[in-house]
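We modelled the chain as a single entity of 130 amino acids. Its sequence is:
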Amino acid sequence: MKIKKGMILAAGLGTRMMPLTKKTPKPLIKIGKKNLLERGIELLINHGVEEIVVNIHYLGAQIQEYISNKNYNVRITISSEENELLDTGGGILNGTKIFHNDPFIVLNPDTVWNQNYISELKLLERFYLN
């Protein structure tokens, strides 16, 4: 069994990265040629995840637009916290309801994810499933 579901936490306010985040949500800040959200999505896809939830709050419309303009080969659902920021635990609880009792991976896009992390994800998955 592989974990086929994942969540990316993208609802934060990005206050520590001001003024960069004044007009751009933190997950869409580019590091090199890719933004933080893109790096997280690609990591999950390359690990075999087939369904991803992305929670949004601050400048969430930009994140929604970014995802709708991309053609990822996975199902990506938006979990909106536009009316009320639910913080980490509440955001995960709300966003992953659609996963029912299936296991899932949660990523924070603050980390600059790259393909070198695939081996770490495999180790965590193996530890969880055994």
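As a brief sanity check on the tokenised model: The first strand starts at residue 5 and ends at 10. The chain has four helices and six strands.
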